[in-house]
Amino acid sequence: MERMHWDGKTRWLSKNTKENEFDAKYKKAVAEAKESVKKATENYEAILLKEFAGDYVVADKKKALVSIEKANKILKIAEDELKKAEEYSSVNLRDNMTIDELADSWWQYRAEVRATQLAPIIERQRNALKEFYESLIEYEKFADKYEEDRQWASDLTRRIRGEKGYYSLGRITDGRDIIYPSDKELELARVQRRVPTRLLKGDE
Q: What is the pLDDT of residue 204?
């Protein structure tokens, strides 16, 4: 029997997925814009070092400054878009599921699992216990069928042998015939999830 799916857990674990996925592309744009600013700045600084060394870099320097300005403008736009995107997603895409809602979801889920999956198991236990008691009653009735003959033979033996030589004749059944579950075996089943060996082998 497969475990039933719990929608509440799935919702909790993925409650910000849509929001995060929506924001991701804008965060990526900001990261890329920052990288462009960094590269443009590094290029400008490299040109500046050449100027310090005596090279003529006026045109390159002007071009590098334009690149920095352009990269910063793109970064500013990307950051503004990210801010607006996060404001939008927090209102329209965020699942504000609370811990109380998760707990309520569990109780609903528990009731459904008990009704659909646990109930048949409990019914099996009830039927097995009913069958056990029915077999116990049948066992005692079986013994009763032969008790009259046993008692007659025992009484006859006592009269002929006397009390000194008398011994009780055994019943057809023996109390040790009955297979009762022991506390140890119950623990074995509940804790270790194992069927007692004597039942698997058919032993007493």
A: 45
